[in-house]
Design goal:
single chain; 222 residues; alpha/beta; Rossmann fold; 7-stranded mixed β-sheet
């Protein structure tokens, strides 16, 4: 098995299980035309996020890492008409593109994009004493994932679902001596998740159009 086969299988799954969607295609095209890095979730992964949020019955979603809003769009579509999604993005350029994509898809009224360093935005959000979030998606800079996990727990309730993307890193997480800050941050995140008294979680390896990676999934306990 190799990358070509993984990509072909993902394409088959997408074509078989996901109906054509111009809003999603337009968002990816706009992101590419703007020169954003091609690190959006794959379409079948986006649909998984959407389904998990619906299964969760999420009314309030927090996303850390907006980029061009592709995953944001999948999550926003899972919300009821009075739901709310708060998404945090470092770069103003990315946030502007994301807003355009969300406007075009007709879901921007459900989404609050906050621009700036995510740790600052999380502290400000917590100070607002918001209603706890039902679903939290971590997909930003990996060295800060341990800190994002701490904030996710603070902003959650018993039963909140937390999902973190890109936690396998081509398998490099098994090397405790790897100096890459993305690997070190991911290992610290997984170890913190595993020992956290309020979290019950697991992680899954995946292959596909995005290569060899995986995600972690946890539920907040009482």
């Amino acid at each position: 098995m190799d990358q070509n086969r993984w990509t072909t299988v993902d394409r088959y799954l997408t074509e078989t299980l996901l109906p054509p969607d111009h809003s999603m295609d337009d968002a990816l095209e706009a992101n590419a035309c703007a020169g954003l890095p091609a690190i959006d979730v794959a379409p079948n992964q986006g649909k998984m996020l959407h389904l998990l949020a619906r299964i969760q019955g999420a009314r309030r979603i927090l996303e850390i890492g907006t980029l061009g809003g592709y995953s944001t769009l999948w999550l926003a579509r899972a919300l009821p008409s009075d739901g709310r999604l708060v998404t945090l993005e470092l770069e103003q350029k990315h946030a502007t593109i994301a807003r355009s994509n969300l406007d075009r898809a007709g879901v921007s009224a459900l989404v609050d994009i906050r621009v700036g360093p995510a740790l600052d935005s999380l502290a400000a959000l917590y100070a607002e004493q918001p209603t706890p979030f039902d679903f939290i998606f971590l997909d930003a800079d990996k060295p800060n994932n341990p800190n994002y996990l701490d904030w996710a727990v603070k902003l959650s309730r018993p039963g909140t679902l937390i999902l973190a993307d890109n936690v396998i890193r081509d398998g490099a997480i098994v090397d405790p001596g790897n100096p890459d800050p993305h690997i070190r941050g991911t290992r610290e995140f997984l170890e913190k998740l595993g020992r956290h008294p309020r979290l019950d979680g697991t992680a899954i390896q995946t292959v596909g159009v995005k290569g060899y990676d995986g995600f972690a999934l946890a539920i907040v306990k009482s």
